[in-house]
């Protein structure tokens, strides 16, 4: 059983954060939240989304799992204004999701959850450095790095108490640093890892400019990016595996 | 003889409503209005436009007929701001149209009207259902249907007093219904016909969101869409032939 | 030695005016200004840019010459808001340009000035007609001519005291004229020359709509277009060779 009403804006934010990595996913319709975990086909980027029942106008669910095509669902949500309400109701018999938006009814065929790529175990890492910053600074770093390279190093300068981003191109380099004045918070620790810029660009697309993003970082370890959505009634965690340092 | 002055906005609205169906057309320069009738190459969609002399700042004509390339004329009108005046003057001798916009003079070569596809006879149908609604609701229906299918059914639910739109895709369906509260007016009658979505999408492009559109509908009959332009000094009627119901 | 701070807006305006003609250029880092002269590969269009030290927040230079890839430098300047300051510093040893924008550091590899196409001698022509007009009128003329032709005639009607633009297409023509009321200033003289529209379109892209542009014109002679940038602390002169009149 699943019957819920949510604003189109909240639904879109949630879907966007997952669709930057995968095209299909499983939705766990838990009794207190919708949960999605997914990993991209190359097993490099993962997302863990939870959208609490509090983010909904009304919410009833009993723990079922459905498989959905995200771009279909995004297209439908895109038919509504941000504040319009979207009514989602699962038809258990036909295994279709009925979606209503102000007189418009869309019947979405679901995907067999068994056919969706298996959900990742998101490892519980103890990463030594923690950086809290605004989403727009991640955007700036990613855009700058993209001018010169297809990978990006994130690290912490422990003595100077700085978070830095490095990108080395064939001829040009980019270096970006933020100190404790620019950051919301910083816990220093040994941290320097190289990542594929493509993945970070995709994740960046889903990070609002005014979001407070927490980055957990280590030395040649995966990075975790965490931020809240839906006025803190939802949360998104990305994890990205490091690239082997080439030099 | 043809010598007229009209705002660029009015001229563009009129041209746009025809150019969604055809690239060339005949303009009947009647003494009280400009009239255009045209049918698309596949003979499926027709347009009937009348723009009264009242829509012009000044208007003189004596019943001539000229052939024009619509996209040329649209490009020229596009050089002006919406409120700028466009002066149109026919040179009978050279068979060219002189178009002036604030110091800019464009000399447009006309097309031999004989070489333009013949104008359709727009059949005088007695369609049993009449739906009056806002242009934006047509837009919404067309966009929703376009997510799942390339054809669209329009119909009236007589008992429930509803106008509905149905689109059936391979896996997903869209159903949109508007009752008398959502509609401006409704005359019920037996009505259900299937149409090519491509044509309706093209016609929809020319329908302003705030226009009051009258739809005349029957059972497996053509549909007529009618709306006013140029502050009611002009009117557009589209007619679209039905597709044979495939199921 | 070169060490300067300038607003991103001013830097972008200067770079844009040159990049419409060439991809690489030499920057003369004179002690009182940055100067760029360049000619396009076909030797048809030239640009002469001077950006005075007064256009900078701070400026130190001693006459060196560096070669730069303009689109790289534009991309970097594009990372900043218009009012953000860009700090440029030349590293003489590595021959790299360090560019800083609010915490972001970009290291730009320079190009050997010897490998950049040789700078043109901009001829000192005594052209009989001078037209001073707003940039937006040039834009209007160029857009109108582009509808019908790939070349454009500029000229002065001496008796009528008008500046005119003519473009003749295969079937359609455009004529645009501005009299002394429309122009800021006009010095009449024998002037009529034909130009490639492609070049004028490129130059037009770099001319602000509200710029006061001075056009020097003769009979089958090159045209000069001159306008100020950076609140008159910089100036741009384009010169465009005429096409041979074909008729």
From TrEMBL, chains A, B, C:
Statement: the UniProt record of this protein carries the keyword DNA-binding: yes
| All copies of domain Proliferating cell nuclear antigen PCNA N-terminal, residue ranges | 4-99
The record's InterPro entries line, in alphabetical order, gives: DNA_clamp_sf, Pr_cel_nuc_antig, Pr_cel_nuc_antig_C, Pr_cel_nuc_antig_N
Alphabetical keyword list:
DNA replication, DNA-binding
Q: Where is the Proliferating cell nuclear antigen PCNA C-terminal domain?
A: 122-242
* Any one biological process term the GO annotation gives: leading strand elongation
The protein's matches in Pfam families, at most eight in alphabetical order, are given as: PCNA_C, PCNA_N
Instruction: Drop me one GO molecular function for this one.
Output: DNA polymerase processivity factor activity
Q: What does this protein do?
A: Sliding clamp subunit that acts as a moving platform for DNA processing. Responsible for tethering the catalytic subunit of DNA polymerase and other proteins to DNA during high-speed replication.
Self-association and partners: Homotrimer. The subunits circularize to form a toroid; DNA passes through its center. Replication factor C (RFC) is required to load the toroid on the DNA.
**Which HAMAP family does the UniProt record give?**
DNApol_clamp_arch
What family does the entry list?
Answer: Belongs to the PCNA family.
Question: Could you identify this protein by its name?
Answer: DNA polymerase sliding clamp
Q: Which organism is it from?
A: Halococcus morrhuae DSM 1307
Which gene is annotated as encoding this protein in its UniProt record?
pcn
